Amino acid sequence: MIEDKMNGKQKLIVVVMDLLLLIELAVAVYLGYQHQENLTVIFLRTYVPAMLVTVILARISIRKLATQG
User: Fold this and answer.
1) Are 24 and 51 in contact (CB under 8 A)?
2) What DSSP string describes 5-50?
3) pTM (2 decimals)?
4) Rounded Cα–Cα distance for residues 53 and 5 (Å)
5) What CA–CA distance (Å, rounded) separates 20 from 14?
6) What pLDDT, in 10s, does the model give residues 8-66?
7) Exposure string for 2-19, b = 16+ CB within 10 A, e = fewer
8) What is the Cα–Cα distance from 19 to 54, expressed in whole angstroms?
9) Rounded to whole angstroms, how far apart are CA atoms 64 and 19?
10) Are 29 and 19 in contact, with CB atoms under 8 Å apart?
11) In a 10 Å sphere around its CB, with 0-12 CB exposed, 13-18 middle and 19+ buried, how is residue 20 labelled?
12) Measured in Å, how far apart are the chain's first and last C-alpha atoms?
């Protein structure tokens, strides 16, 4: 039977990813607030690339840290 449980290092990666996503969201909202006339464009140009990089790197890290069994 294949177990899909995560080890401690993988769980730590998930926690760090969540924190980074929250920080990225806060920064994107702050930058958008500074330029309210272009709020949507600035938000999307700031948050989407940062979020994609964070999620992709986290997924790669989680896969590399998977225990072989």
Assistant:
1) yes
2) ---HHHHHHHHHHHHHHHHHHHHHHHHHHHTGGGHHHHHHHHHHHH
3) 0.84
4) 24
5) 10
6) 899 999 999 999 999 999 999 999 999 889 999 999 999 999 999 999 999 999 999 88
7) eeeeeeeebeebeeebee
8) 10
9) 20
10) no
11) middle
12) 11
> What does the alpha-carbon distance between residue 65 and residue 53 come to, in Å, rounded to a whole number?
18
Q: Quote the tokens at residue 57.
A: 């790197």
CA distance 23 to 31: 12
Phi, psi of 21 (to 5 degrees): -65, -40
